[in-house]
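Exercise 7. Given the encoded structure of a 519-residue chain, write a plausible sequence.
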């Protein structure tokens, strides 16, 4: 097909003429022509589209090459940090005379549920856990138990509900309804602390039983349950005016029952009546300690540093010692920690000498512990002194028949007093009638403990470091914390009082502190 194209002219335009464009942009200026194109409508449309595409590509290439404009991909905007929002509940929250078996919640975005078994708390507790299904923007709860008449129910979802895209958790979503004409509105609050440390543990569960029998915490599910916050506080809501027996426990198995005495457990001294004034409800959780397995500390070793494949060395009695940089702590015992329990031990096969003249040390004791894996050398260490410990080849034999291959000598030096600080603490409002014991905590472990017979505590040699302090009220005067006993005796655990401030002990310095124990 023949046709005449209308005249097109390229005209340069400077940036000053059209701001925010590249230095030169070409555009088409249509000129009038007396000749009309001999072209069909479809062909005209095709030409126009091709021209538009060409101009678009040309503009992108030229602006990109000019260096004055950058192609930036579209941004997704700020990250969504808002948890799902409930738009509708069926039935409505706080509904009365509920007769159904299904709850439907509609949210403003797609949602999912996670770990519903551990997150969802139904009060009163259900015998059969409800099923929870998430689909698009809806969560449906199907109740599988028969509901009690004239009872207020609450569904606490904990951290179960989250949005699909970003995983934002809808925390502390709680829904309430009643099968009767009213909503119970009574509450019960309190705190649970770990008795041995006086610190909270938010993983514990607080439970309410209606039965006064001790066996109920073992054989029956509780009536109500509540979680602890990070401060150890619990808060029961929508309770009826009844009398309950209050407990707390570590619920690792999800049974909500007290299974054994190694499980953290706490109990109130008396039943609580909801509606009456219950001030300062504090429970102290305790558990009997399991015997720690005998292990060899990861310390600098002497004896047993064998080369691979050395058969003779493999038969050598192996042990490690608790020296640091080959220096003996003036406040500690020298300990030999063996890989295997000792079958035979002869203390006369060990001799401790001072300096190079090998002067025997008087008043030294060699003590084997109950596991037969540690021998302690106890004496009053002199500062900055060279010691030599002579180990006769037959002084010990372990359970595998290993002995030393020959008589050995262990040499080390004791620390100097300037490596330590003087620690002085003056306590105010210290009740000496409660048999207080000062517990000094290093890291998370008990470092030292000292029974207090006066408000003034002094240690002339103390290892430098940062320490936490606690006061143990030692009811049986044995110098250590003891757990309680629930069944039969209802004996509460011994308690400790935390001291908020830390103390820093500096070497070669008198470190003095005044501490007020008044709460």
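Solution.
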């Amino acid at each position: 097909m023949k046709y005449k194209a209308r005249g097109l002219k390229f005209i340069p335009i400077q940036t000053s003429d059209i701001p925010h464009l590249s230095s030169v942009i070409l555009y088409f200026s249509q000129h009038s022509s007396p000749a009309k194109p001999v072209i069909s409508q479809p062909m005209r449309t095709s030409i126009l589209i091709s021209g538009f595409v060409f101009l678009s590509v040309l503009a992108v290439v030229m602006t990109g090459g000019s260096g004055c404009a950058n192609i930036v991909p579209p941004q997704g905007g700020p990250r969504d940090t808002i948890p799902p929002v409930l738009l509708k509940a069926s039935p409505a929250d706080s509904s009365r005379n509920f007769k159904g078996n299904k709850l439907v919640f509609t949210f403003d975005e797609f949602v999912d549920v996670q770990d519903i078994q551990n997150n969802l708390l139904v009060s009163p507790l259900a015998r059969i856990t409800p099923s929870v299904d998430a689909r698009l923007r809806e969560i449906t709860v199907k109740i599988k138990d028969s509901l009690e008449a004239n009872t207020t129910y609450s569904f606490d979802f904990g951290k179960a509900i989250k949005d699909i895209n970003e995983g934002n958790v809808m925390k502390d979503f709680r829904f309430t309804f009643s099968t009767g004409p009213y909503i119970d509105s009574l509450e019960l609050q309190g705190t649970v602390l770990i008795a041995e440390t006086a610190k909270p543990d938010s993983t514990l569960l607080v439970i309410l039983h209606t039965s006064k029998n001790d066996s109920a915490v073992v054989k029956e599910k509780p009536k109500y349950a509540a979680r602890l916050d990070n401060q150890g506080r619990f808060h029961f809501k929508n309770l009826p005016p009844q009398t309950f027996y209050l407990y707390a426990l570590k619920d690792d198995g999800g049974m909500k029952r007290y299974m054994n005495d190694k499980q953290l457990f706490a109990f109130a001294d008396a039943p609580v009546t909801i509606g009456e004034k219950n001030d300062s409800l504090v429970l102290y959780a305790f558990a009997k300690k399991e015997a720690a397995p005998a292990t060899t500390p990861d310390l600098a070793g002497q004896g047993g540093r064998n080369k691979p494949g050395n058969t003779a060395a493999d038969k050598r009695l192996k042990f490690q010692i608790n020296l640091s940089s080959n220096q003996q702590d003036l406040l500690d015992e020298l300990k030999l920690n063996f890989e295997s329990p000792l079958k035979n031990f002869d203390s006369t096969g060990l001799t401790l000498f001072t300096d190079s003249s090998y002067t025997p040390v008087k008043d030294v004791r060699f003590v084997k512990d109950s596991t037969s894996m540690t021998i302690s050398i106890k004496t009053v260490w002199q500062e900055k002194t060279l010691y030599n410990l002579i180990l006769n080849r037959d002084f010990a034999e372990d359970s595998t028949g290993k002995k030393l291959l020959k008589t050995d000598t262990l040499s080390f030096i004791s620390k100097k007093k300037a490596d330590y600080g003087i620690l002085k603490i003056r306590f105010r409002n210290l009740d000496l009638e409660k048999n207080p014991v000062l517990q000094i905590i290093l890291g998370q472990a008990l470092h030292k403990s000292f029974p207090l017979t006066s408000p003034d505590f002094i240690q002339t040699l103390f290892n430098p470091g940062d320490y936490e302090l606690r006061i143990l009220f030692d009811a049986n005067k044995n110098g250590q914390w003891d757990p309680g006993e629930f069944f039969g005796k209802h004996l509460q655990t011994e308690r400790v009082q935390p001291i908020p401030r830390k103390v820093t002990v500096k070497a070669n310095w008198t470190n003095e502190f005044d501490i007020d124990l008044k709460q």
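Remark. The longest strand covers residues 496-505. Students should compare their own answers with the one above.
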